[in-house]
TrEMBL record:
This is VOC family protein. InterPro entries: Glyas_Bleomycin-R_OHBP_Dase, Glyas_Fos-R_dOase_dom, GlyoxalaseI/FosfomycinResist, VOC_core. Pfam families: Glyoxalase. Residues 10-161 form the VOC domain. It comes from Yinghuangia aomiensis.
Length: 188
């Protein structure tokens, strides 16, 4: 049966939290053979966000947050919507599930969710600026996002890629568990 409410294109990316980005990069690139496709340094020393290409236009992504709580089953969800506060979650937790949607349906889907009584956060046009997002879409935007919670408080995202990811999008060395960057940028 097809979805009659939203034209979902599968999972855009699953965003998890790791304890050590260097170890995570090593496992997903060297053990599983995935390509590191995008690296993001979060503003104000708040961590990193790296994307691995799973194939088929789908990605698995990891946050590394300095000072994040240790792995703790049951501490697995954000208390706020991205763009409205601190979104850190524990090591080995699931931060959010992202569903890929068509870029031309973005505003329509936001209105549709809100009409159904779902509170959405601000639209975030992710870019390489110091803040990592802009309220407006521009040529540096690589993905548009809107976030909302399910009834159990699981953070969900509708995301639309606005451009292909390129080799230059991997520009940050991964941090280890103590916040020390690797000597080299993976794939550079």
């Amino acid at each position: 049966m097809s979805n009659t409410e939203f034209e979902l294109g599968g999972v855009c990316h699953l965003a998890l939290v790791c304890q050590d980005m260097q170890r995570t990069v090593d496992f997903y690139t060297n053990v599983l053979g995935m390509k590191l496709a995008k690296t993001v340094e979060l503003p104000n020393g708040n961590g990193q966000h790296f994307f691995f290409d799973m194939g088929g236009g789908q990605f698995i992504a990891f946050f590394w947050f300095p000072g994040a709580p240790e792995r703790a089953p049951g501490v697995a969800s954000s208390a706020v919507l991205p763009g409205t506060g601190d979104i850190r979650t524990a090591h080995a937790s699931m931060n959010h599930v992202s569903f890929k949607i068509p870029v031309d349906k973005f505003e329509e889907y936001k209105e549709k969710l809100e009409a159904k009584g779902v509170r959405t956060g601000p639209i975030l046009n992710h870019d390489d600026s110091e803040r990592t997002w802009s309220p407006e879409i521009h040529e540096g935007t690589y993905v548009r996002s809107m976030y909302f919670f399910d009834p159990d408080g699981i953070l969900l995202e509708f995301a639309a890629w606005t451009r292909e990811l390129r080799d230059g999008d991997v520009a940050h060395a991964p941090y280890d568990a103590d916040g020390v960057p690797a000597a080299t940028i993976p794939g550079a």
